[in-house]
Specification:
- By secondary structure, the chain is an alpha/beta fold.
- It folds into 2 domains: 194 residues, Rossmann fold; 120 residues, N-(1-d-carboxylethyl)-l-norvaline Dehydrogenase, domain 2, CATH 1.10.1040.
- The chain is built from 13 helices and 12 strands.
- An 8-stranded mixed β-sheet has the order 5-2-1-6-7-8-11-12, sandwiched between helices. A 4-stranded mixed β-sheet has the order 4-3-10-9, with helices on one face.
- The protein is globular, with a radius of gyration of 19 Å.
- The protein starts with a strand and ends with a helix.
- Bound molecules: NADPH dihydro-nicotinamide-adenine-dinucleotide phosphate and ketopantoate.
- Ketopantoate binds next to helix 8.
- GO terms for molecular function: 2-dehydropantoate 2-reductase activity.
- It catalyses: (R)-pantoate + NADP(+) = 2-dehydropantoate + NADPH + H(+).
- This is 2-dehydropantoate 2-reductase.
Length: 319
């Protein structure tokens, strides 16, 4: 399998470190030249959930800086040996038209793009430049935290669902991606194909809309949300309001979704949610694509979401 990972943050470094032993070729694209040089020199240092440390130093991962890579290749020349899959592991605000076009230039007719973002909105931007109609969506509850430019901790095991975008051609919708699922499983990621990514994406959207802003505002780990009745009440308010929107949009959410939210908090109890990590590192969060997108839909549907409005404003104020 020939793979490319775009984005060497928490999720990108985790997946790269674990997949490196199983790929014929693995290229990791960083945003800065500094990080690509450091990774080429030191490899990725991965701390597992059981504190086992693993390094890819001396391995065969190729690290490249986004701008260098962009300048060195155009679709006219095309990759000599194309990638089978490109994993997009950047945050929502980084998915610009320019990045989507760059990714397109790195694809051939066989390459699937797999987009791993939380929230919603990325599917629309990416499908505009998806000439081959081979966009896959992924939702994952793995927990990861980047500790430095080259180090990452795997903070919680989860499950990864993969499936076609709703815009995907019915011909491609039938592909089972058996080899990819096998590869991810071998590398240690529980993985399933899903025929109903819309519900998976909505379920994950609600999980993040409940957990992420509260952890970011209160500066607590995911598991700590379950330790107080006050935070549990806030979680329930956010959950119920999000369900009103889903119901109005005729999305059939799983009955056990609330229980899933509790389970994710437990399974990633030591994790600083990605939104908390953004606030800690003074970065723009994904609030616009998570609670912000729910508020936008609610406005169109004439629904009021007071809990979401409040956490949205608080996270914006923190940003
Ligand atoms: N972390 C987690 O546990 C989980 C995250 N997710 C989701 O996965 C996605 C990625 O999250 P996460 O890994 O935490 O995010 P991070 O912020 O840790 O990583 C994103 C990476 O993308 C890089 N990047 C930005 N723009 C470009 C570009 N043009 N070219 C190459 N790289 C670029 C950033 O570089 P730089 O650092 O230099 O800015 C950064 O390293 C998000 O949507 C998140 O919600 C889902 C489940 C769990
Ligand atoms: C599952 C969870 C909540 C893990 O922290 C996550 O997706 C995130 O941090 O964005």
């Amino acid at each position: 399998m020939r793979m490319m990972i775009v984005g060497a943050g928490s999720l990108g470094l985790l997946f790269a470190a674990k997949l490196s032993a199983f790929c014929e070729k693995l290229t990791v694209i960083t945003r800065t030249k500094e990080q690509a040089d450091l990774l080429a020199q030191d490899g990725i240092m991965l701390r597992g959930t059981t504190e086992r440390i693993r390094t890819t130093r001396g391995g065969f991962i190729e690290f490249s800086h986004y701008q260098d890579d962009k300048d060195s290749l155009t679709r006219a020349t095309g990759p000599v040996q194309p990638y089978d899959y490109i994993f997009l592991m950047v945050k929502q605000p980084a998915i610009t038209k320019e990045l989507a076009q760059y990714i397109d230039s790195r694809r051939s007719e066989i390459t699937y793009l797999v987009s791993f973002q939380n929230g919603i909105g990325h599917e629309d931007v990416l499908s505009e430049d998806d000439r081959e109609n081979k966009l896959l969506l992924a939702v994952t509850t793995e927990g990861a935290r980047r500790e430095s430019q080259t180090e990452v901790s795997h903070t919680g095991h989860g499950i990864t669902y993969l499936g076609a975008s709703k815009r995907t051609d019915p011909v491609h919708k039938k592909t089972t991606h058996f080899l990819l699922v096998n590869l991810l499983e071998e590398a240690g990621f529980r993985t399933k194909m899903s025929k109903n990514m819309e519900v998976r994406i909505w379920s994950k959207l609600i999980i993040n809309a409940v957990i992420n802003p509260l952890t970011a505002i209160l500066r607590v780990k995911n598991g700590e949300l379950l330790e107080s009745t006050w935070t549990k009440e806030l979680m329930l308010d956010l959950y119920r309001e999000a369900c009103f929107v889903a119901e109005a949009k005729e999305i059939k959410l799983p009955d056990e979704l609330w229980q899933n939210i509790v389970s994710v908090c437990k399974a990633t109890s030591r994790n600083h949610s990605s939104m908390l990590q953004d606030i800690e590192q003074s970065r723009t969060t994904e609030i616009d694509r998570i609670n912000g997108s729910l508020l936008q839909m609610a406005e169109e549907l004439n629904l009021d979401l007071p809990a979401h409005r409040t956490v949205y404003r608080l996270v914006k104020a923190l940003e």
